Amino acid sequence: QINNINGLTIDSRMVQKNDIYLPIIGTNYDGHEFINTSLESGAIIAFSEKKSHKPNIINTASVKSEIYTLCYQWYKLSKSKVIGITGSNGKTTTKNLIHLIMSKKYQCSKTYGNFNSTIGLPLSYLSTSLNDEFCILEYGASRPNEIKKLCKIVQPHYSFITNISNAHIENYKSINEIYKTKIALYEQTHDNGICFINRDEVTISKNQIKSKIVEFSIKNKANTDNKIKINVPNHLSYFKKTIQSIYIICKTLNIDDKIIDNTLQSFDLPKGRGNIIKYENYNIIDDSYNANPKSVEFAINRFNKMKNKGKKIFIFADMLELGNKKNEEHKAISRLINKSNIDIILTYGKLSKCTYKNIKKTILSKHYNDIEKLKIELNNIVSKNDFVYLKGSRSMKLERIYKR
Predict the structure, then answer these.
(1) Run of H or E residues at 178
(2) Strands 19-21 and 45-48
(3) Residue 319's CB: how many other CB atoms inside 10 A?
(4) Whole-angstrom Cα distance, residue 107 to residue 146?
(5) Which of 5, 98, 292, 397 has its Cβ near the most Cβ atoms within 10 Å?
(6) Among residues 286, 312, 270, 306, which one has the least CA distance to residue 401?
(7) Which of these, 60, 38, 134, 15, lies nearest to 6 by C-alpha position?
(8) Bridge partners for 392 per DSSP
């Protein structure tokens, strides 16, 4: 019967014929309530933590443990080398671009979307082909030690950390605890693998790493064997440092310069991650997928360097998951804005009011708790050739500014 299995799913609405259904108990739902529905929809087997004597239901003490066991078996059978990526910012775009480049030469798979958690990553990995040559996985962590746990389930052969900052700090005691969680990706890399380390962003002792190390510095050009000469397209110019890291990784894995260059020219940023949208007679930079202090600083620096004929309008919404540092961090953003060439700042949400209060008077600024009123104000002040930059945490849904 194992040969008839089509796939695995935790969503009963997505069940296809001969799937295995894995019910997860979430905050707002219990997947066990949909076991019968999944079997009626064609699932060949369903696991259950609630005892059942029905045929095609396998009783288990832990569905998560079953997922991890299946994942471990899949890892032993798979031919693919796992490229593991983590970091506080830029990991999804890095993963997507590496996958796009590597796919030009090798059979590759990747984490779907941002399926990078202790459930999402194993399920992503289980959806890969056993014949893949490479699998690019995003290792996410919103709590201490999660990356180490993920590496125990799917151990990376190659690893890269984009950067480490105080994203999701609400669930951590300190920035050092975040560092220890992220750095586990390097510590857990396969002995015969390679750790790619950008010394500008990550500091780690070589004694902590068992695998081979390829280290580099974009700022100092130290310890870098490759003379980097890349034609970075205009729409990715602000992403230049990360592209240089991606170049080194792909070159080490035997990808030709021409393939990398051609792929860069055709690469489009994922929605909400800094892509530029032509909207009516002005431009919107939609960077609203998420926000933390480091990524907002990155956004302001990027906006600063952009050249345009019209005004620069920055719409900033709350940064969440900052714990007791939330007011301090929002105030710090105002200092960055005050040093910038931004013409107008519109803030939205309870926390960003702290940013608004500390904006200097030479910058036109207004604060809103109502997204509809903010939209009306934007329509009143925006004109031809203006650039409007959207930045805020995912749950603030700033894309509503232009999506009807």
Answers:
(1) helix 175-187
(2) parallel
(3) 26
(4) 28
(5) 98
(6) 286
(7) 15
(8) none
CA–CA gap between residue 161 and residue 387 (Å, rounded): 31
CA–CA dist 54, 50 (Å, integer): 11
Contacts 24+ apart (CB under 8 A), 364-370: none
C-alpha to C-alpha distances, 102 to 125, 232, 381, nearest whole angstrom: 17, 18, 45
**Separation CA 158–CA 34 (nearest Å):** 38
Closest of 25, 16, 68 to residue 48, by C-alpha: 25
- 333: nearest Cα among 366, 363, 283, 296: 296
The span from the CA of 50 to the CA of 52, in Å, is 6
Joined tokens for residue 194: 């390679």
The CA-CA-CA angle for residues 238, 239, 243, to 5°, reads 145
Show the tokens assigned to 152.
Answer: 């125990």
The answer to whether residues 219 and 200 touch, using CB atoms and an 8 Å cutoff, is yes
What are the structure tokens assigned to 91, written together?
């990991």
Do 4 and 18 form a contact (C-beta atoms < 8 A)?
A: yes
Tokens read off for 3? 């040969």
Per residue in 27-70, pLDDT (tens digit) is 888 999 999 999 999 999 999 999 999 889 999 999 999 999 98
Local structure of 212: helix, strand or coil:
strand
Q: What is the mean pLDDT of residues 298-320?
A: 94
Helical residues (DSSP H) of 253-370, grouped into ranges = 257-266, 293-305, 326-338, 353-357
Residue showing tokens 């990715």:
236
At residue 26, the 3 state secondary structure works out as coil
Cβ atoms 286, 399 nearer than 8 A: yes
From the list 194, 209, 188, 190, the residue with the least C-alpha distance to 251 is 194
Indicate the DSSP class of residue 269. Answer: P
The DSSP bridge partners found for residue 84 are 137, 159
Distance CA 236, CA 228 (A): 16
d(CA 381, CA 367): 14
pLDDT at 3 over 60: no
